[in-house]
What we know:
Blueprint: H1 4-26, H2 38-45, H3 48-56, H4 62-80, H5 92-95, H6 147-150
Amino acid sequence: MITPFDYFEHRRACKQKQLERSYRIANLPPDYHTPISSEDRKILDKPIEQLVQNVHNDVVKPVDILRSYGKVAIKAHAKTNCLTEVMINPGAEKWIEHVNLKGPLAGIPVSLKDSIAVGGFDVSVGYSRNTGKPYPQDGAMELFPTSKPISPSPSSPSNPQTPSGAAPPTPITLPTPQAAPPAAKALS
């Protein structure tokens, strides 16, 4: 049985995370708040494999991919409340200039489950009780060592199973090595 205190604590935690998310969205660089352009549409219409090849061949810049996918994520969130955490921070566009552009996910933003640890963000696993406790550093990156260095992703961590109104954060990082599924070993 949920006691009134637990209910009020839950609502407070949800409201706090919603305010954090709204603040992060409002403070994104202006490019993320502009309409989707024809250049964005060209990026969004291409298959991921072609985008990676375009990044490898310096045809498109990772920051343009991040901005295009970021715009879509922000617009989708405005209609559906689908984002649980926004991890595009002011330094992401500068940071993305210094990453490996020859990796298998070069320049591609990724979205990770909210059970993955990213330094500075909560690992809520969908529970409001787990919010307000950001991890001090990233979790293990064994499976996809290029995921975070290639893209700050953070365009759209989402959690479709989060109850309406509750918007706990969705951290980014990768599972610990001992949790690696057998099929994932074939990727390395």
